[in-house]
C-alpha cells in the first residue's frame, strides 16, 4: 500500500512540476493508471490512494476485473476489435485506440443501444510502422471529418505510440508531430468542436 501511495505522490509531483513549466494547471492533467497484470486488490489500493481513472489494454482484463474493482473510470487503451466492442461499451468512459471507420461504426451502434456517447481518441501511427495500428498522419484530417457522421462518438483528441528510439529526445518528435497534427485539424477543419 505504501509503495503505491508513495509512487502516486511522486507522479503527482512530477505532473505538477511539468504543468508549471508549461504554464498549465496541474488539475487539468488526467493521470490514467494502467492496470496491466495488476490484481483487483492492487487496483483498489491505487483507487484508495487517489487514482480516479484506470486504463486497460485488453477487453478480457476489463471484464475479469470490472466487478471486483471499486467505482472508477475505465479506459480501453489497447487495440480494440469490432467484435469485442459490445462487451465494454457500457463499462469504459473512453476508447483510446480508434483506428478505422468500421470500428467507429461498431462503437456508434453499441453506444446507441445503451443511449450513451462514447469519448474516443483517434490512434495516429506517427512512426508509420507497418506492425502498428493507427491512422497515417496524412489521412487523419479526412478520417476525423468522416467521424462527424457518428452521433454517439465524441472525438476528444489523438493518441500515438512512438517507435522504439535510442534517446528520449527522439521520442519527442513523434509526440510533437501528433500534437501539432491534432491542433491543425481542430483549427483548420473541425473548428466547431471543442479544442482537445
Instruction: Give me the count of strands.
Output: 6
Helix count?
Answer: 7
Kindly estimate the percentage of residues that lie in beta strands according to DSSP.
Answer: 15-25%
Given as residue ranges, the uncertain stretches (5+ residues, pLDDT < 50) are none
Spatial separation of the terminal alpha carbons: 34 Å
Strand order of the largest sheet: 1-2-3-4-5-6
User: What is the H/E string?
Assistant: HEHEHEHEHEHEH
| Major sheet characteristics | 6 strands, parallel
What Rg is obtained from the alpha carbons, in whole angstroms?
A: 17 Å
Fraction of helical residues? 40-55%
- Mean pLDDT equals 91
Which structural class should the secondary elements be placed in?
A: alpha/beta
Shape: globular
Please describe what this structure looks like.
This protein has helices at residues 2-21, 40-48, 59-65, 85-88, 101-114, 140-146, 168-188; strands at 32-34, 53-56, 73-76, 92-98, 118-124, 153-160. It has 196 residues and is of the alpha/beta class.
List keywords for this structure.
alpha/beta; 7 helices; 196 residues; six-stranded parallel β-sheet; single chain
Amino acid at each position: 500500500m505504501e509503495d503505491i501511495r508513495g509512487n502516486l505522490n511522486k507522479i503527482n509531483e512530477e505532473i505538477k512540476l511539468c504543468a508549471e513549466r508549461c504554464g498549465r494547471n496541474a488539475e487539468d492533467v488526467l493521470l490514467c493508471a494502467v492496470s496491466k497484470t495488476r490484481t483487483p486488490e492492487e487496483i483498489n489500493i491505487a483507487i484508495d490512494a487517489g487514482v480516479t481513472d484506470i486504463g486497460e489494454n485488453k477487453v478480457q482484463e476489463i471484464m475479469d476485473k470490472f466487478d471486483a474493482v471499486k467505482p472508477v473510470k475505465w479506459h480501453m487503451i489497447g487495440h480494440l476489435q469490432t467484435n469485442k466492442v459490445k462487451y465494454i461499451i457500457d463499462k469504459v468512459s473512453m476508447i483510446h485506440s480508434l483506428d478505422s471507420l468500421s470500428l467507429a461504426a461498431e462503437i456508434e451502434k453499441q453506444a446507441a443501444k445503451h443511449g450513451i456517447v462514447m469519448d474516443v481518441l483517434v490512434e495516429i501511427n506517427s512512426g508509420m510502422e507497418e506492425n502498428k495500428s493507427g491512422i497515417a498522419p496524412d489521412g487523419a484530417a479526412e478520417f476525423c471529418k468522416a467521424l462527424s457522421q457518428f452521433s454517439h462518438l465524441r472525438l476528444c483528441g489523438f493518441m500515438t505510440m512512438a517507435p522504439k528510439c535510442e534517446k528520449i529526445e527522439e521520442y519527442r518528435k513523434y509526440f510533437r508531430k501528433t500534437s501539432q497534427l491534432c491542433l491543425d485539424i481542430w483549427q483548420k477543419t473541425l473548428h466547431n468542436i471543442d479544442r482537445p
